[in-house]
Predict the 3D structure of the following.
Amino acid sequence: MSDTRILLSEREMPRAWYNIQADLPRPLYPPLHPATRKPVGPEDLAPLFPMELIKQEVSRERYIEIPEEVLDIYKMWRPTPLHRAKNLEKALDTPAKIYYKNESVSPPGSHKANTSVAQAYYNKKEGVKRLVTETGAGQWGSALAFGCSLFGIECRVYMVRVSYNQKPYRKILIENWGGEIFASPSSLTDSGRKILAKYPDSSGSLGIAISEAVEEAAKNDNAKYSLGSVLNHVMLHQTIIGQEARKQFEMAGDYPDVVIGCVGGGSNFSGFAFPFVRENLTNGHNSRIVAVEPTACPTLTKGLYSYDYGDTVGLTPLLKMYTLGHDFVPAPIHAGGLRYHGDAPLLCLLYDEKAIEAVAVHQRSIFEAADLFTKTEGILPAPESAHAIRTAIDEALKCKESGEKKTIAFCLSGHGHFDLSAYDSYRNGVLDDYEYPEEELKRLPAQLPKV
Ligand SMILES: *Cc1c(COP(=O)(O)O)cnc(C)c1O
């Protein structure tokens, strides 16, 4: 009988992150300055990020060594287990094997600690006193507050208002790690005040919260900005997930035919999948790599591949990505971490190259999948992660039809212990499904910045 949990020891933990920029089928489009529309250089980014992260952003080195101090902190919860979901397989009566990489075991409860710790480390090393950021569902805010607390730097978080109200416990968690937190849009920044003047009842969006955090960091010499997804260096730090998973599959004597992850900005998906994408691109493997997004915010499946701002107000560099438009405010689904208008440029290029696939799934269907997962595997997943579970189950059910014995792997990006009110709504039958409004698609080309 094969193992239920495939475990690496601390000593077997990978010591380098994998940088997929070394293996891309074509180079990335450069980020453009929001005012001049010229490619941004390191000096443009220096007010926002420490130099070491700027270097990682453009590096073509295939492997980047993980600093000893970061490895030591990773060891608090890493290597994370790769589980074989035997009970779920049994319940589905599928011939497929289902594995999941469990990133919910970090202290803040998600994969986001993999990059928050690294970012806090590089900022501390370059003398930064405070990190400013935005958060959607609150996972990134808590992960960064956790990282900052370990390195003794301040942390300030702008949290999307709808989540701030839906998830008060994330706020308290952030405060326990010493972070300060404000509902966004706030009246603390010009960006926030501008939105509030136009929409006093704005429920907020990640794009708006980013504008507020970037503005504050740019105006303060001792503060820098920190982003929890989308950027190349964030994808890089997350590859510890897939690097471990590859070793674990080797130990299990298996290899995934299908690799699945949910996508908000793309970091847990990319971190889990890129090491397997590399095997496809350079080692003759042929796994299907599937990104899962909500129908309420279908960036890859419905968006346009175009330069757009990362934020709502237009303060960030323009990134070439699949986008639904920087002023798109998605329906208030409970997977707050998936309500972002764009996706990571690295992931978008690979999607455009057809190296990865994408599907969109409905809110109620992801809670049904989460419910079955909790009852079979015992872990209450984050609603974001439940998108990956939905698709893994759908793939396993296809195998039941066809009799194929595929190996399916997904990333369990986090737990849902702070999403209990969402589960309550599901149980009471008051959850809605949201379709992306088609009128939005028609007005999209006109509102994208011209380059
Ligand atoms: C933030 C978050 C996501 C979405 O962000 P990505 O950068 O796309 O990974 C997904 N799952 C969990 C648990 C999160 O906290």
Summary: DSSP finds 18 helices and 15 strands in the chain. The radius of gyration is 20 Å. Residues 156 and 180 are 5 Å apart (CA to CA).
